[in-house]
Amino acid sequence: MLINGKEYRSVWFEEGRLHLIDQNLLPFDFKTVSCQTHQEVADHISRMTVRGAPAIGAAGAYGMALAAHNAPNNQFRASLREARSLLLESRPTAIDLHNALDFVYEQTLKFIPDYDHARNVALLAANEFANISAEDCRKIGIIGAELIPDGARILTHCNAGALATVDWGTALAAIRMAHRKGKNIFVYVDETRPRLQGSRLTAFELEQEGIPHAIITDAAAGFYFWKKEIDLVITGADRICLNGDIANKIGTFEKAVLASEFKIPFYIAAPLSTFDLSCREGRQIPIEIRDEAEIKLFGGEYLSNPNSPALNPSFDITPAKYITGIITPKGVFKAKEASQKVQI
Ligand code: MRU
Question: Which of 249, 268, 328 has the most ligand 1 atoms within 8 A of CB, as the residue to mutate?
Fold first, then answer.
């Protein structure tokens, strides 16, 4: 992705360290952080320095590579197991994290007791996960752009951009590619309370790419559907079940219901790492509940009645019946069929 004219990935490994763009500071400040241990990586994932399902998958993969690098030979297997569970606990909903950790863990263990080789393999496997993820997103962009008509007014929720992935994005990859092909598009950006991934991060990425857009409050989408000013909706996903139900940022479900009411196409865009082949339906997905402080305070100041409790589910489930299609690197599929089709 281009940030102030320079190419970046949101997550990359260089000189023995994992580097992350600090997404909590954007768009006001551009800084990167680096990690030398898997504990630091887990901490940055739970504090959302890095966020977005494919991006936390890649960060987790590199966390495992750091754990392998730091593990003594006589506790190699146990150290990797401990690192895997710590990283897994850092955020529960996005399956990309599980898939990435399992991928690096399984590749690495194959080479025990050649520990030096196993350490190299851990890093190679993490690089492979990140590169495949970026390439998946590029393909999603090419395929997804075909679904966007010239002149389209698109609604998106949260940030499913390059920042949320290793590069390109999922929903935003399609939007980015449509714009690069010369299509005249406009994006309605849901603010995405409480952490404002839409108004901070999606708006920032669209501005960097020169794509016309406006931020709207989460509650305003219905008004723009009603005014017939939204032609399609594209969002990302944190987990896709076998029956086509998906988890994504809280508020996605109500946008899908609105799209259905107004007969507007509602697409999900996701790489292969977002499919959970062990999950039958949406009710089995663990939903992360975050701190009530994210709702009640902003910049350390109360926005809400201080003594009232607040409930802060970070994700919701959109049932398959509301999804027009899932845009994957292998094509666009009906939600109910997507898990089977991506395996072919
Ligand atoms: O809590 P976040 O910011 O990690 O939530 C991110 C989302 O919900 C994204 O839409 C999802 O991860 C898809 S990103 C390509």
Answer: 249
